[in-house]
C-alpha cells in the first residue's frame, strides 16, 4: 500500500513541523492529516464597520491590531489577554481567557475577527473571537474580499502547540499538491447516491466556498467512513469463521442440569430458550462461535452461559469465565455451584482464580485448570497470567465485555489454541453484556459478532419503583430518604447506599470509576458523597443506628470484600454503603432499596445497572436517585431518563442521544487510539445500514477485495495498528 495519502508527514512537512502533529494527534501520514476534519465551521458573514456594531450581533470585522496586554484574572488562576483593534474609524476590545489563543496576534497585523458582540463595563467587546490574518494585497472593499469573507471558516480541534490557523494552513498546503486519488467508493455505488468523488470531498470539507460545500463533502465522507468500517468488520467475521473449532454437543451433564432446573420449578424464558438454541448450533458447527449476548439486568444471561459451559464439559472441554471484579468472580462461582447442585458441582469442580488467592489455594486452582480436573474456571484478570494454563479450553465467556480490552480477550482465547490436551482449534467465544446496545451501535462496534438479545425477565422478578430526589429544589427531602430506608429495614429487608467516592480528605477525592463526564462537575460544587463519611452518618441516624451498616469499596482486600458480601447475602448486614463495585452481578433477593447519592455523577448505564441490584426476588424494589444537579442540566436529564423507565434498551438509546457524539469504540474496545470521525451512530443509522448492505454485496463477489484495491487500501489506512488488533481479536 503506497499512494499520495501514505506519504509520511516527515517527508511532506519536514522535521520541524511533522513532530508537532505526531505529538499532538498521533498523525504519521498525509492521510492521517487530511482525515483531521473540521469540528465545526464559523461564518465570517458580512464585514461590518466597527462604528456600526450592535450588542448581541454575530459579526465579522477587518481591523488592525493596535495593542496587546495580559493581566492576572481576579477571581481565578491564569491570565487574561486584552487586544485593542481598530479599522481607522473606531476601536474594539477583544478578550481571550486563554492567552495561547491570542499568541499569533501581533501589533500592526491586519486580520478578520468573527464573534458575538458583548459589552463589559459599558465597552463593546468580542470574547474569544475566531480570527485569521487578512490576505496580503487584498482590498477590504473589493468583491474578492467579500467572497473571501463570506466563505465558512473551518474550526479544527487544536492544542497549545498547534493552533487552528496553523493546522488550517498546513492542511491547505497539502491539498495544493494532492493529486487525483483512487476512490474507495465504487462509481456504481457513488453516483446513484449523489456522492462526490473522494478527492473532491477532501477539498470541500477543508476549503468550502459556501456552507453547501462542506455539507455535501461531509455526506460523502460519512458514507466513506461507514463503508470502510463495515467492510473491515465483515472481512474479519469471514476470517474468524474460516478457523476450525472442536465440535461440541450436549450430553450427560447438560441433561442432568436441565433435570435440576425442572426439579426446582425453574422455567427458561422464550428468549433464553432461543438464545440457548443459537449457542448450541454454534458449538456444534465446527466453526468458532463469536457471539454477543445482551440482556436486561436480571434476564438470565449467566444461566444461558452456564448451559453453554456444560455442553463444552460434556465433550471433555473446559470453559473459562472472565469477570471484571473479584466480588463478581466470587459471586459467579457461588452461583454456579448452587445452580449445578452438589452432584454436578462435585464432578465439574468449578474453580476460582483471582490475584489475591492464598498461595496454597492458588496452587491447587492452577493445577485443576492445567490438568483438566476443573471443567469450569472462573476468574478475574488473573486468568490472563502466564501461570494459568488449560488442558482443553473450549469456551471463553467474557462477562461485562466493556470492562476488558482487546489484548486481554485475545490472551485468554490464545490459551485455548495452546491447551495441553486440546487439538489446537480456536475456542468458542461468548460475550455477555447487561448494558443494552442500540442496533446501530451493535452494527458499528460489534459488526463482526453474532448478536443475540434476551429482553424477557424470568418469572418472580418484582417491579422496581424509581424516584429522583432533587435536593436543589427540595433540600429537606434527604431526611425522608433515610426514613424511607429505615421503613424498609423495619420490614426485614436490606438496602444499598451507593456513593461516587470512597473518601474526601484534604480537598482531594478518592473516586471509583464513574460513567459521567468528568468535566460536568461544576467549579465550587460540593464534594461528592463518600463511603467512609456516609457510613458514619448513617450509623448515627436515630432510626438506623440499631442496624448493622458496613462498607464495600475497591480499596478493600479480596478477603474483606468477600466476607462482607457473604454476610450481606446471609442477611447479617442490613445496609451496604458502597461504591460502584456492586454495580454488576451482586444478587441478594432480600435487598429492596437502592439509594444512589450524587446520582448525576454516574452515567445512564451505571444507574440502570445499580438499580438492577434490587427487586431480584419477591420483594418489590425501590430506587432513590439523590442529586444536586440543576434541574435543566444534561446531568439531571440523565438521572430523569433512568427514573422514567426500566427498559434498558430505551435507556441505551437515550444515553446515545444525550451523548450526541463521540468515540463509540472507546479505548476498552479498540485497545488504543480510535474514533469515529464524522459518523455518528445516533444520527446516521440509515447511512450505516446502507453501507453494510453495500459492503456485504462487494465482499460476496470479491472477498479479498482484489477488484477493489482502493477500498482495501482505505481499510488499512483507516485502521492504525491497535485498531487492526481490535478487529482481529474481538
What does this structure look like?
This protein has 730 residues and is an alpha/beta fold. The chain has 4 domains: 45-150, OB fold (Dihydrolipoamide Acetyltransferase, E2P) (Beta Barrel), CATH 2.40.50.140; 180-238 and 688-725, no CATH class; 252-454, Rossmann fold, CATH 3.40.50.300; 464-659, Rossmann fold (3-Layer(aba) Sandwich). The protein is built from 25 helices and 23 strands. The strands form 5 sheets. It has a 7-stranded parallel sheet with strand order 11-12-10-13-14-9-15, with helices on both faces. The protein has a 6-stranded parallel sheet with strand order 16-23-22-17-21-20, sandwiched between helices. The relative contact order is 0.09.
Shape: globular
Radius of gyration: 30 Å
N- to C-terminal distance: 25 Å
Query: How many separate helices?
Result: 25
The number of distinct structural domains comes to: 4
CATH architecture of the largest domain: 3-Layer(aba) Sandwich
**Percentage of β-strand residues:** 15-25%
For this structure, the CATH topology of the largest domain is Rossmann fold
- What portion of residues is helical? 25-40%
Contiguous uncertain segments of 5+ residues: 513-524, 660-674, 721-730
Considering the chains and any ligands shown, give keywords for the structure.
single chain; 730 residues; alpha/beta; OB fold (Dihydrolipoamide Acetyltransferase, E2P); Rossmann fold; 4 domains; seven-stranded parallel sheet; six-stranded parallel sheet; 23 strands; 40% helix; 18% strand; disordered C terminus
